[in-house]
Amino acid sequence: MAKKLWGGRFSKKTDPDVEKFTKSIDVDYKLARHDVMASLIHTRILLKARLISPAEASILRKGLEEISDEIESGRYKIDKDAEDVHTDIQNKLENKIGGAALKLHTARSRNEQVVFDTKRYCVFEISNINKLIGEFIKGIEYLSKKNSDIIMPGYTHMQHAQPVRFKQYILSYKYMLKRDEQRLSDAFKRLNYPLGSGALAGTSIIAEFYEQAVKEVDKEIKHPFFRAVENTIDNISDRDFVVEILGALAILGMHLSRLAEDFIIWSTREFGFIEIDDAFCTGSSLMPQKKNPDMLELVRGYTGRLYGNLISVLVTMKGLPLTYNRDMQLDKEPLFSSIDIIKDELKISAKLIRSVKINKDNIDKQLEDESLYATDLAYYLAERKVPFRKAHEIVGKLIKDSLTMNRSIKEMTNKELNKYSFLLNREIIKNIFNKDKSVDSKRSFKR
Known about the structure:
This protein is mostly helical. It is built from 18 helices and four strands.
């Protein structure tokens, strides 16, 4: 059994089932590189506080840097019997450098290590995710530019509504993703990772040493928001940052799911608006003709996992007394899960969207539906002083009668059209029932 960071006051070994139930090494191993950085910073703090000698600090740094090299090169082997990643690194350090490692935990608590490591992990991952969002946005812009001349039916309630430009539709996701990026960037600003909390009450080391040590040692990431801890109890017990990030990822997942759903529908034979590249589809083990959009379906499906991860942490935190409780160990798996899901989805989606082919002929067939131009016709009447509610009623009846008679409005005579309004005639109908003129008439937004 791996050596623990505690145990002096206990007269019995931990029950094996309890040991298995409480350990977190299978999950929190992802924090290894961040925990080593925390230890390198703490070594500098102890040296500044004269709690270790320069020689001891040098030995500690050398051992920790060796472990860091093993982690970065993939040579680091997790001890599955260790209680958690913090214990595993401490044990490996002791095996490498001997007794000097025993001084590393001076004025330190795993409670604080957990917060520091998790926040530093989030700093890196938010940066990674925002880069992936940027790549996906470039893919959206590419598809938009490539198909800038396409006009398509717009939908509300999954029913034909009004013609819109395809680029207007697809670029709407750009703005959703921009907001997702902003939410994550906003969370990033609050991800300062202060040290000096100890287990909860603080330590005897002056605050300036903590602040200086982080700035001197942690050169890997340019994070401008580090500061000395202001409230040690808040620092130890806070998991707002996890909830905030999971919330932002859940919204991002929702946006990806909505785009996936549209593409799934549009790729069906019933719509036939787009074709998804074979590289992003799978087949059927029974039906030879099938081409299934499995990747998009999984994007849609994983959204439930993203929501569940958010709810699980909210429920875990809702009744916890201050400060640290072991329940908080359970925030890691949902956090890591959501981050991994989102990164995978963004990587694949950025590739998929560049390969999408638009079927203009099928889209143009749908634009023959005269009901798509009903609002334009109502606007025409309103501009000629017909009260809009009356214009709405006139056009609604015209559409209804056309469907009942199974006869297009364009085929109606001037006499027939005049029954609805003397302002209507065949030339007017022909002019208004035009996809290009319909979309060009909308001037209330920047193009």
